[in-house]
Write a sequence for this structure.
DNA sequence: CGCGTCTTTGAGAGGATTCAACGTGTGTGG
DNA sequence: CCACACACGTTGAATCCTCTCAAAGACGCG
């Protein structure tokens, strides 16, 4: 029997759930900016659903690296929010009056191209912020959870006011945004300079990091989406690498045996 | 005799200079975010080379919408800088310790793809900021002036300190960055969802604005670069529109006669 | 087991770049 | 003043990359 899944279904699915890989991957990736990551990086192993006030403050402090009272002010303005896997935080076209701060999990900004194709624009990991900031605005993307997601939501106006009145908040915000700008520029550069296979290769290197291993091995359909290509292309690209002995792949791990060579191939 | 210019040469050239169109175009385009532009928008008609202190303060205030003393602090930390057309502000790979605030003119972030092809990642108009912000960092793009350009340069560390100590600065910075993030997302969306001709059409609409006229008519090679395609493709796309009577083109102006129809074609 | 998902491979189609050629306008230098 | 180089635009043909379509196998799960 043939495979009848339309790409649309696949796309919708792949951005969701089950592989733990994707979550980890994106979480790892979303903060690969030049500046070091803030000390705190979400903690999905905690079993509880709601954060204690103290934790909330700690979160604020580590995200904004701010004083106690600033954290308190933020904590008070914030509302905790849980979104199930595949849940939609906000829809394209909505007039948003909020920002969302990712506490745990990963949120993705995606667009449905006119042909129904789903396109990934950005992903937000723990400590990152999305929504409408300088003022309320219509959203140009959907924001969906790709795994269980816990957020802090805060009114745009309140956040702006806080930023204006409290230096720590403003500064923290600017750092947050600068980092996002940075990674977005990277992604943009990759998308426009590299060929489809090149983007796949680059993503492999990024996911592998210094250890040159991806464990568990990546789900190709998901990887394809993040670099804006098709599973077929990704599959072919990687098959090529395996054939040439540049990467080795087992059920448990994908290992890059010749990272230098792979890096050369990208250019 | 044939034309022997390699594409590389062309690319290098086109990003420069002579057509006044390109400068205006980008200047118009770089602030098309949802939030209204700050009240002040550069003034190239002023004949002098150096800004008075008072003007400098005014610039700061309108960019950061901040108090007098914050503006004074910024003004003191800043060094004025003039870059000639085609001049390079900073090079890819440089370890930058500065941020630059565009006072007048347009700066572009560009990358040379491995094949020597020049690619435009972003452009910064008056009131926009680029460089390394949260901390010193290696630049991933060249920054070049595309027309006479005057900048304020400020040490990254100084700016960060100011942001942390002065709420107005931090807030202003966050607004600046949020706006850039916004437009970058837009650009990204356009680049990934649209076809090459679609991007050309979209750019036409954007340049034309409400008046539906582009005056003087766009330099195709430059337009092609901004939407990341070739002059040939751009030329074909527009020739098509002209043939179908959707736009009219003379030496002096390009006019969109059927903006609705054109908008339809983009999707 | 049937179903859905993921992967892989081949073949075909389409879009966009590349190459080639030519016309035009502009500025430079002999 | 006249080449000449250079930039820009236009058009056609060839080429290549990438997506789409089609088919089939593997795995996990209710």
């Amino acid at each position: 029997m043939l495979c009848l899944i339309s790409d649309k279904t696949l796309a919708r699915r792949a951005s969701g759930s089950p592989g733990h890989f994707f979550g980890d991957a994106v979480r790892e990736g979303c903060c690969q900016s030049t500046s070091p990551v803030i000390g705190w990086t979400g903690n999905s192993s905690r079993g509880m659903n709601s954060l204690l006030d103290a934790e909330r403050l700690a979160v604020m402090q580590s995200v904004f690296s701010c004083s106690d009272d600033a954290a308190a002010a933020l904590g008070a303005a914030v509302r905790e929010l849980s979104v199930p896997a595949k849940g939609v935080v906000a829809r394209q076209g909505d007039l948003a009056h909020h920002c969302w701060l990712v506490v745990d999990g990963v949120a993705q900004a995606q667009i449905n191209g006119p042909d129904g194709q789903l396109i990934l624009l950005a992903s937000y990991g723990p400590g990152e912020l999305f929504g409408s900031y300088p003022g309320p605005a219509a959203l140009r993307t959907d924001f969906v959870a790709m795994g269980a997601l816990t957020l802090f939501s805060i009114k745009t106006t309140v956040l702006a006011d806080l930023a204006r009145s409290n230096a720590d908040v403003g500064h923290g915000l600017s750092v947050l945004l600068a980092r996002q700008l940075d990674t977005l520029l990277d992604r943009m550069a990759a998308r426009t300079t590299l060929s489809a296979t090149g983007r796949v290769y680059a993503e492999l290197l990024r996911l592998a990091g210094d250890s040159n291993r991806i464990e568990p091995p990546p789900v190709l359909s998901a990887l394809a989406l993040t670099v804006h290509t098709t599973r077929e292309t990704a599959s072919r690209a990687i098959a090529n690498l395996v054939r040439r002995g540049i990467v080795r792949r087992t059920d448990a791990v994908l290992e890059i045996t010749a990272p230098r060579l792979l890096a050369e191939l990208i250019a």
